[in-house]
């Protein structure tokens, strides 16, 4: 058997793995209709941890404070900011009766560690149901809190929401960031939908306070600068206690990074936590990303080696059809429909970037959350 024939059969296996993964793990969520039933309002504490976010707080905090919700407080955590963040928070506290302020002073043991600041904010909150977002996020509607909190029940103590990025015209970086965000959401929503939740995003998620204290907070990974969202959810989420919220009114929206350098720094921070996931999650995610990388490498290599192009085109077409079905339905659900036909090109760009980030993280580890 020739070398190219071995490559071809390997490529067939890789395409099969990708097709099975998309159809079994991802497609069931992509076609699931979001539930929009609003339940009775439970008291919630919204926790926002901010470091040097004065301008974002001025723009976005009014949209949080003016939610159409009967009983909630907003806990603002100033994480040793060097700008006017604390003064802005004090002004909001003066103007709104449901704002609580926690001013975190920098100490050597937890310098640059968002988890320490968040822990103080959680301890200061008065309600059992906690909703988390970031200072650079704004709710998509005034029913954000109502939709997120409606997923809590006697069994469901964790709610995973979607944090979108605002669209920017004629920006490849913005399209790439939004594509990666949709793909990440497709995965963590799909896994949760199948009863194997593995992460959430701090821009939009919620859980009961008792889960935090029963788990001893972030103690098991306090020395890791990232992971207040995904590592914590990876620890506490299980088959029965996790719900997802994908109604468009429940989204939060952030401004994406404006330079590739800033985005790479952000992604390095996020990627650095994946090695600490549970073994089953690392295995499943590893199979997907490895087969995704090999799909492109082997497909391009077989074309270069002039293997029977008809078979290669057929296999590539099959894989893209399966991918676009899953991604397309999800993109429509998450209000990103204009990314559907750019998906193959953005995927190739993203894989190249992720590979470089993986290599960079092997050389050095990101140090701080900001």
UniProtKB/TrEMBL annotation:
E.C. numbers: 2.4.-.-
GO-annotated molecular function: glycosyltransferase activity
Transmembrane segments annotated in the record for this chain: 6-31, 283-303, 309-327, 339-363
Entry annotated with the keyword Translocase: no
Keywords: Glycosyltransferase, Membrane, Transferase, Transmembrane, Transmembrane helix
Domain Glycosyltransferase 2-like, first and last residues per copy: 45-210
Top EC class for this record: transferase
Homology family: Belongs to the glycosyltransferase 2 family.
Identification of the protein by name: Glycosyltransferase
């Amino acid at each position: 058997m020739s070398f190219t024939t071995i490559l071809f059969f390997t490529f067939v296996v890789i395409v099969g793995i990708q097709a099975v993964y998309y159809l079994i793990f991802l497609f069931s969520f992509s076609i699931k209709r979001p539930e929009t039933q609003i339940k009775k309002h439970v008291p919630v504490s919204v926790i926002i941890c901010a470091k040097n976010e004065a301008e974002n707080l001025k723009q976005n905090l009014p949209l949080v404070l003016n939610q159409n919700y009967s009983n909630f407080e907003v806990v603002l955590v100033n994480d040793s900011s060097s700008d006017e963040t604390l003064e802005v928070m004090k002004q909001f506290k003066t103007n709104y009766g449901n704002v609580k302020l926690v001013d975190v002073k920098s100490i050597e043991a937890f310098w640059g560690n968002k988890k320490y600041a968040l822990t103080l904010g959680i301890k200061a909150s008065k309600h059992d149901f906690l909703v988390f977002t970031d200072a650079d996020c704004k709710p998509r509607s005034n029913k954000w809190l109502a939709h997120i909190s409606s997923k809590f029940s006697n069994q469901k103590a964790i709610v995973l929401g979607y944090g979108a990025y605002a669209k920017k015209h004629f920006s490849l970086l913005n399209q790439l960031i939004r594509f990666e965000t949709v793909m990440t959401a497709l995965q963590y929503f799909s896994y949760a939908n199948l009863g194997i939740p593995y992460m959430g995003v701090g821009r939009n998620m919620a859980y009961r306070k008792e889960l935090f204290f029963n788990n001893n907070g972030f103690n098991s990974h306090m020395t890791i600068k990232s992971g207040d969202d995904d590592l914590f959810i990876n620890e506490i989420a299980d088959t029965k206690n996790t719900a997802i919220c994908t109604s468009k009114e429940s989204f939060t929206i952030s401004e994406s990074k404006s330079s590739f350098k800033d985005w790479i720094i952000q992604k390095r921070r996020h990627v650095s936590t994946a090695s600490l996931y549970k073994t089953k999650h690392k295995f499943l995610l590893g199979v997907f990303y490895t087969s995704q990388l090999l799909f492109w490498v082997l497909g391009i290599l077989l074309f270069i080696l002039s293997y029977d192009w008809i078979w290669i085109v057929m296999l590539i077409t099959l894989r893209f059809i399966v991918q676009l079905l899953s991604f397309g339905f999800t993109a429509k659900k998450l209000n990103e429909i204009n990314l559907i036909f750019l998906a193959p090109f953005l995927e190739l760009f993203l894989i190249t970037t992720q590979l470089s980030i993986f290599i960079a993280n092997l050389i050095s580890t990101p140090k701080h959350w900001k």
